[in-house]
Write a structure and sequence with these properties.
Layout: H1 2-31, H2 38-53, H3 58-71, E1 89-90, E2 98-99, H4 107-114, H5 119-122
Antiparallel strand pairs: 1-2
């Protein structure tokens, strides 16, 4: 009798887990974009507007969009690459060494700060 009760408890727990998983999958399914989604409608209107403004067929614009998506894939969460940033700081002892102010401070910046200089002292003035 104890074995049957233990098996029943185990099956109930498994059923609850499966129900939670089903609810999660249904929520994910409902979250997906559809043809009637406002975002998709906006994209469609934009493509139609581009076609009209440039006196092209909608299919031609769609073809260009597909080609652009293949050529310039989105990267990371930000949706693109940041690219190079011009330097903001220059090493007073060696003007060839510069830093954009992003990422880790170079050793020469750390050394200058330890000497009592400030980042403003190292700033490149145009």
């Amino acid at each position: 009798m104890n074995d049957i009760e233990a098996l029943a408890r185990q099956k109930r727990a498994e059923l609850r887990r499966l129900q939670r998983e089903l609810e999660r999958l249904e929520a994910l399914k409902n979250k997906r974009l559809k043809v009637t989604s406002p975002e998709i409608k906006d994209v469609a209107r934009t493509i139609q507007s581009l076609a009209k403004d440039h006196m092209m067929e909608t299919e031609e614009v769609l073809s260009l969009v597909r080609e652009a998506i293949e050529r310039y894939p989105l990267k990371g969460k930000r949706g693109g690459t940041l690219g190079r940033v011009p330097p903001k700081y220059r090493n007073l002892d060696n003007p060839a060494e510069t830093w954009s102010g992003r990422g880790r401070k170079p050793r020469w910046v750390v050394a200058a700060l330890e000497k009592g200089l400030t980042l403003d002292d190292l700033r490149i003035r145009d």
